[in-house]
Write a structure and sequence with these properties.
157 residues; two-stranded antiparallel sheet; 5 helices; 2 strands
Amino acid sequence: MPNKYQREIEEILRNMERTEPRQGLGDRVRAFNRPRERAPRAPRLSLTRVEVLYIVGIALIMIAAGLTFYASGQFFIFETIPLSGILAVLGFITLVLGLLLGWRERVGGPSPSRPAPWRNNVVEMTPRRGPFSAISTQFRIMRLKLRYRRMRGHGDE
């Protein structure tokens, strides 16, 4: 059975060698074979929701700290609530929301069930992570190693 697979692999490799285009010196010199130059693009800043929440939260907390330091808490809303306190609480809530969303994405919250663009019926195999998954994985690897050693030991005798 392995010989069959080996022959098929060798045949595929031979066919690939035949179909590869060969580039000679003339092909390299021609201008139309050269890749065209692309205009440099401006760097684009792509941030996730979590990163935006972190940035907004830190900015709100920094503004609140600046108001408290420079104005000594003189800005009030409704004559009793300091503006810096409201900004600090909003910043804290935004940071906590960012942490929760980041944790939810990492742990594996509900993912959109859309198929991959190149196929219609793809089953996504995502590993289930629990608190003891690393330990159980190491235990399974150890069992496989022991089984391999036992099988190898029987083959030598």
